[in-house]
Design a protein that fits this description.
Helix content: over 70%
Structural class: mainly alpha
Bound molecules: hydroxy diiron-OXO moiety
Distance between the termini: 34 Å
Protein name: Ferritin
Number of helices: 5
GO cellular component, one term: cytosol
Keywords: Iron, Iron storage, Metal-binding, Oxidoreductase
GO molecular function: ferric iron binding; ferrous iron binding; ferroxidase activity
Largest sheet: none
Shape: elongated
Low-confidence stretches: none
Amino acid sequence: KMNEDLEVEFGKQITREFSSAMLYRQLAVELELRDLPGMASWMRAHSAEELTHADRLIDHLVARDNRPVIGDIAVPSIKADTVTELFEFALDAEREISLSIRNLYLAAQAQGDIESRPTLDWFVTEQVEEEANVGEVVGRLRMVNEDGPGLLRMDAELAAVPA
Ligand code: OFO
């Protein structure tokens, strides 16, 4: 069983993963409204993936007889003029998640909680991938520069890519 302070920190991360899922879901809505269903489905797939992240943390706590508590889910209001800005929202969110995983890792380390290490190692690796994936999409969208045919092409590509 992990100590209570660390349990609280894990609970906060679980809440962040749920919030992240809702952010991606809202971004999918914004893209649907812009008639970009491929990009919207990419966001929806990512939303579903964030739920699995929350579950992974919940499962770890429950396995150790801790009690994960889900806090308030916060979804930032999205104001974006461009498609690129919508994806930049996602990239900023991933960077924040990376930072919070890093802090959780350090908190676990400070408590000598070696049992959570494999789970947290998985998240550290995952965040490097996530930032790279979303960062690549943002980079390519910047090249496209909101040009219609370019956006449609990326919409078709992202429809086929699991997030
Ligand atoms: Fe997309 O990140 Fe969860 O952890």
